[in-house]
Amino acid sequence: MEAASSWLLLSVAWLASLAFLSRIFIHRRCKQLKSPSGPKPWPIIGNLNLIGSLPHRSLHKLSQRYGPLMQLKFGSYPVLVASSAEMAKEFLKTHDQIFATRPPHAAGKYISYNYSDVLWAPYGPHWRQSRKIYLNELFSPKRLQFFEYIRVEEMHAFISRLYGLSGKPIVLKEHLLCLALSIICRMTFGKKHFCVSGDDRLGSNSVPSLQELQEILNEFFFLNGVFNIGDWIPWLDFVDLQGYVKRMKALKKKLDRFHDHVFDEHKRKMKELGKDFVAQDMVDLLLQLADDPESDPDVKLTYDALRGLTLDLISGGTDSAAVTVEWIISELIKQPQLIRKATEELDRVIGRERWVEEKDIPQLPYIDAIMKETMRKHPVAPLLAPHMAMEDCNVAGFDIRKGTRVFVSTWSIGRDPSLWEQPDEFRPERFLGRNIDVKGQSFELLPFGAGRRMCPAYNLGLKMIQLSTAKLLQAFNWKLPDNTKLEDLSMEEAPGITTPRKFPLVALIEPRLPLHLYKI
Ligand code: HEM
């Protein structure tokens, strides 16, 4: 009965959304955007996810038809989709400061500690201070180097685990998620396993194991990406038709217990060691910064801020790196000649007697080209995270009203035929000898965004993707299971705010290096 009524509600929601979509005003070339008639109050909780629920190819087709800046109008405020490199530059560079805030939405409110993280935080003192902490403390080159031993150990354990599965079909994404989560947890909390919680799973006295943490994060990603009607029609937020807000509140309770455990444990250690205490992980660093008597009292790191930032850390890095590497192997497996080229490079530069290391990466231009080509064709954030105008402004001749949501479609930019020859094809060679970077300077390739809200951890993300790709190619020969033909391998993306494969990649591996190298 409950299931039937949820389906009914979902169907009504979809019908309503279709009805709204049919009323979309798409302003050809946006010349017809009206001048602002004074800022209107915008709803406390606004829609983010309707656009994300459109298949990216459909959005791309609309943008090819209606131009590089489309206005989609639903509800009480306009939504813009920027789908050319020039338009991306307008919003993320020329007018970056005006668009440096995020729109409010239910997930930010209920599961990101009322916007106490960085991802959903509004532009302001908390965001500025936290971002400074990320850039200067947690993700500085020195700090990332300090944590290199963790990446080395976890990558090696990952390759050894896979080696044990040689000859059997593996679901690669599961292993990649486990790798990313282990690295991030060790960097953030100093360990990857919490006490095994036994029967009382997430009961009041227990804290999650790695597997349960993964389940919590899955729920977190799901709820961040759902089409919550209350975000769209604010007064319905109180009714919570789909039950998402209820789920968000339940998730918050689990997150609270988890954070309390982590912070109590770290504080106990700090107290025990007294003057001998040296920060070992990111939570240690955050607690030290929160206790710093010299910090600005106006932007003191509150307990909620500590929880919000920790959440950024564990959620930001897990799915994104795993999604990208799964696409890399999927694209390569379809074109075995590309795998041959990559392994030739690895054999030439590294040889077959030792493992590739982070310091080798600059000597591997073909691996770099494979990564960039994957980020072009399958950007993890196909619409970046939403930006919002903080004031009325004029961008490239178009009047834009305060409160307007702006999505930058990196998916469309990556398929723009004026930038990329045969954009639907996977051809790493297009990047060889070209000076296109992924660090927010080349507006034709923006996997991490650009400007003030660009991913603050892009250097960690790059290291994780480059090294795991190089290791997977160095370690194994790859093929599809015997019952799957190359041409049958689906390359469909799941629609949503990220672009994972619709169907997980299942592959067969066999070792290609001397066997003693795989031992732990
Ligand atoms: C493959 C790896 C990654 C990719 C592709 C990626 C991509 C992105 C993108 C596209 C944005 C939004 C940029 C914008 O709105 O203009 C972003 C923001 C962010 N990312 Fe990442 N990211 C990755 C790894 C990470 C990691 C490892 C962390 C943390 C451990 C992280 C934490 C964040 C945070 C906190 C923000 C919000 C920044 C702000 O709003 O000021 N990301 N990321």
From TrEMBL:
GO molecular function: heme binding; iron ion binding; monooxygenase activity; oxidoreductase activity, acting on paired donors, with incorporation or reduction of molecular oxygen
PROSITE patterns, alphabetized: CYTOCHROME_P450 (PS00086)
Keywords: Heme, Iron, Membrane, Metal-binding, Monooxygenase, Oxidoreductase, Transmembrane, Transmembrane helix
Cofactor(s) needed: heme
Transmembrane segments: 6-26
Database matches in CDD domains: CYP71_clan (cd20618)
InterPro entries per record: Cyt_P450, Cyt_P450_CS, Cyt_P450_E_grp-I, Cyt_P450_sf
Name listed for the protein in its UniProt record: TRANSPARENT TESTA 7, CYTOCHROME P450 75B1
